[in-house]
Each structure stands twice: as C-alpha cells, then as structure tokens.
TrEMBL record:
Gene Ontology molecular-function annotations: ATP binding; ATP hydrolysis activity
Matches recorded under InterPro entries: AAA+_ATPase, ABC_tran_Xtn, ABC_transporter-like_ATP-bd, ABC_transporter-like_CS, ABCF_ATPase, P-loop_NTPase, Val-tRNA_synth_C_sf
Protein's name according to its UniProt entry: ATPase components of ABC transporters with duplicated ATPase domains
UniProt keyword list: ATP-binding, Nucleotide-binding
Region Disordered: start-end pairs: 529-551
Highest taxon in the source lineage: Bacteria
ABC transporter domain mapped to chain residues: 30-248, 312-531
Gene3D superfamilies reported in the protein's UniProt record: P-loop containing nucleotide triphosphate hydrolases, Valyl-tRNA synthetase, C-terminal domain
PANTHER family per UniProt: ABC TRANSPORTER ATP-BINDING SUBUNIT, ABC TRANSPORTER DOMAIN-CONTAINING PROTEIN
Amino acid sequence: MRDPTTGLAVRSARGPPPSFATVGPVAHLLGAEAVHLAYPNQLVFDSVTLGVNEGARIGIVGRNGDGKSSLLRLLTGDQQPHAGRVTHRSGLRVVALSQADTLDNDHTVGWTLVGDQPEHQWAGDPRIRDVASGLVADIDWDATISTLSGGQRRRVQLAALLMGEWDVIALDEPTNHLDIEGITWLAEHLRRRWPANTGGLLVVTHDRWFLDEVANTTWEVHDGIVEPFEGGYAAYVLQRVERDRQAASTEAKRQNLMRKELAWLRRGPPARTSKPKFRIDAANQLIADVPPLRNAVELAKLATARLGKDVIDLLDVSVSFDGRPVLRDVEWRIGPGERTGIVGANGAGKSTLLGLIAGTVTPDSGRVKHGKTVRLAVLDQQGGELASLAEDRIADVLGRLRGDYEVEGRQVTPTQLLERLGFGAGQLSARVGDLSGGQRRRLQLMLTLLSEPNVLLLDEPTNDVDTDMLTATEDLLDSWPGTLIVVSHDRYLLERITDQQYAILDGRLRHLPGGIDEYLRLAARSTEVPKSPAASTATEPQALSGAQRRAAEKELASVDRQLARLADRIATKHLELAEQDQSDHVAVAELTRQLRALEDEVTDLETRWLELSDVVG
C-alpha cells in the first residue's frame, strides 16, 4: 500500500515462517529465498537468496539495467517475484523511496510533510525538526506541490519519508537533486538515525562518497545474481580486484580500471584512507605496480603546448537575472592544464559561471577574455546536441566521424572508444533516441571528447551513469591534456579528477585550499541563523564605532585585493612549474615550495576575510 500523505510505498508485514525469524545471533528483518525474476528479453535474478539483518546498512551497486531497482522493489514488496518468496519479520515497518515522483500536486508542502498534525505536536519531534532544517528549510510550507521545481519536489518526497518511524528504509538514488551540503546532511542523518545494530538501510546510488559514508555492506548486482561484499565502496573495490585476480578473470580491462581506482582510494585525500575496512597490506600489494593516476607536470606541459599561456580570463565579472545578483565581482584567470571543480548550493550560479566561460552568458559588467587558441566544448545537462540524432543509429553516427583519434598517446577508433565507455558491438544498431539516460550520457561524452577541445566544461557529468561507467569515464579523463572545469555535486568525482576546487558563496567565487571539507565549513557558517532573539543577542558582535567600522571595511577591501594578486601569482607559478626542465630536481622542488607557501598565505588571508566579514556584517 501507499501512505496517503506522501504516496510513499509502505509495507507492514504479517511475518515469515518461524525458520526465518533469526539468522544466527542477529535479528532478521527481511529476506529473499530462491527468488527468480525474468522478462522476455532479460533474466534479472536467477534463484537469489539473501537476507537483511538488524543493523544492516547495505549499498547496492551494479551496471544500469542489471536489476538494482528491481531488487529494492522485490525486497520491499512493491514487486512480486516470478518464483521464490520474499519474507518480512512480523510487524516490520518498511518504506521505499523510488525514483518516480509520487507526490500529490494539490496538497501543500506542509500537509505532505506532517499531514494535519497541529504545529505544537510535530514541532516537538526532534526528528521532524532535524529533517525539516536539513532538507526543506528554504521551501515555503504553504506552497502547493504543483508550484515546486523538480529538485524541490524530490527533497519534499525524501523529507516526508525520513520524518516517519521506520524499521527498514529503502532509497533509490536518494542523492539525485541534492547539492553537496544536502548529501552530507543525509549521510550524517542516516548514520545516526538508528541505535547501533538496529534498523536496516538499503540504498541504490552511484554516489561513491555517499556509499562509503553510510554502508557497512555492499551488494553488487550482476549477471542474474547478487554478490555481497563487506564494507562500503572502497572495501568493495579491493575485494572485487582480489576476486578477479584469484579467478584469473578474463575481464582484463575491467580489472585494470578497478586497480587504478583502488590506487586512487589509497593515495587520495588522507581522510579516505582511514575509512575502508580492509587489509592495508593487501591493498598496498595490489597497487604496488600501479602508476600514479596522472602525471600532472607532463599534462600541464602538453596543455601549455596546445593552449599557450592565455586560456580564459574572467575580469571583475558580475551577472544578475531580473535584478537579482547571481555572480559578483568574479576575478578568475584560468590557466592551461588546470583541473578545477566548482561547488555550490543549487541555484548558487554554477551553470551561470560555465555559461560565462563558454560565452553563452553575457556579463552585466566586467569582461571575459578568451585566448586565441582556445577550442572549447561543453557537456551540458540537457544533451541537446543529441536531439538532432534521435533517429540515427549509433553506427551511422560513428560512420560520420574520422577513422581514428589519438587517446592516451595511441590511435583509437570511435567504436573502440565507445566500447571503453560500456557499449557492446551489438548495441551499435540501436537508435540514439532509444538509448537509456546513461547510454545517451556516455555517447554525448564520447562526441564531446572527439571534437578535440582543449578546454572542456562538464556540467553534472555523473547524471544517469553507474559506478562502473564513472570509473571508466574518470580513467579516460585522467590522461586528457587540456583545461578541465567540472560542476558537480558528486564529491567523489570532484576529488578524483580535479586538482583544485572553487566554491560559489553569496555570489562570489572562492578558492578552496582545504577542498570540499573547507567548502562545507564555509557553507555552514554562511547559512547559520540565530534561533531566537536571545541567541541573536548572544552571537552578534559588539557594535562598532564609526571609525572601527571604516577600519574593518578598509582592511576587508585590502584583503580582497591581496587575494586577487595571490591568485595571479599562483597561476604564474603553475606555468613556471609546467615549463621548468623536470630533470632539474632542485629547481622543481624550489618552485613547488614557493607554490605551497603562496597557497598557505591564501588560506591565512581567507580566514582573516571571514573574520572581517563577520565584524562588518
């Protein structure tokens, strides 16, 4: 049945046979026994048996179309198997969030979230307050559902689910339409939602950072089976590599990609290396001969050769729409070979920033300067360039391209590149208009890369792409020798393929020497509001005299100018490093030291900028 308030799939089971009451010492919640599911053209599950116990936090991964969503529907009772059975513990409260929008357009946001409960009743529930502040604080509760955007509707649907009391929660792509702050909040909420060793979570997602944060078990759905792995995504990668190696797998390409992914997990951000629940010695042995993900110096030299020193400069640029400022006083000199991630809340201006760079948005003030050799390509969210190809077969599209292209120093055909992105030879006869969202996204990426740009803009490139294809895409971009700018809410992707991150906060572009963690701290500070007049009085800075305010404003302006100059010096230092003879190790080390000193200076100045901003208000 469905909850009449939210339209969410809800199950309250009468209970399984006694044999399913427990599995060992851990209480059993639900399970599947010899489940078979098949369609005329696909075997989805072939005699699958599995169980979900108290305390399980299960991430479900696999290729698009292999049955991840079907598995959720089977386990929650929304779909019946063709053979076998699904069992639930007596009285179990199960709720499922599907990818479909099930909200009633005629209801208000408030009624959808809390029904007809009086405010004093729901406002006293700490869970409802937490969910409301985490997901829907910016949405008018008196608005009708029909007036909301797609992203707002998704957040309302998720919030309505999380406000309820459930033993098992099943989530299908819950991070869709959430920004980085929302994804971080959701991970924290799910980690502390139930006491230890109670409750159950099933989540299908391609967000690998999110998987590592919430899952203690990973199920891989493939070839009609469900294969369990201990731990989150990082642990799953190690075990999958070991599985392929021990079985002398014929999937050599796949194995090499995963070994490279494992190398990233071990060599990436320091905080990540402490999370995976696997044997560090085994991981080190597996990646002993894996080269670094990319040679940053060599790629910078190649990019400089292709682009020259002048790429794209945004000079004191401001943009507003309908009188509302979106971007303010943006000063950014983009250098050759830079790999930059852009983060910010939904509506902060990230796509507008890409539009400025691409030339599709005209600034209200300031100017955008393009280097003479820039060849720019954009992978946008709409995929509009595929619309004219809807009736064409993939083979016809490939036939209009050149016979070979240089990728990673080797000549490859478009067909080989498409196979690398997950297309089989049998799919070449498919029409572009009949492709799934993930397949369209991969074809779009291939056509974008084969246009041979030297500046590449990616706007939410992970949409509709499963974890295997994300890995393949990242591997392809590792060796791409140009300037790369990525807008994404996928934290894992940003940390994986970019070397620096910027944030849009209050319309201003800010460098993030501390990466995504620094952004989350800054975003939290910028959105903090006093909870009461008393709290406001306690947190407000002491009133400034006129002279003190002028002095603070003057220093703030000075810090702004210093940060702009440092940005120029850092860009210049990157160029010097790229052009330096790499055999001169002493000179390279000295340039690197100077670069790190400049970045440390930026960090100190940004801290002072925040302090002064709080004082000036």
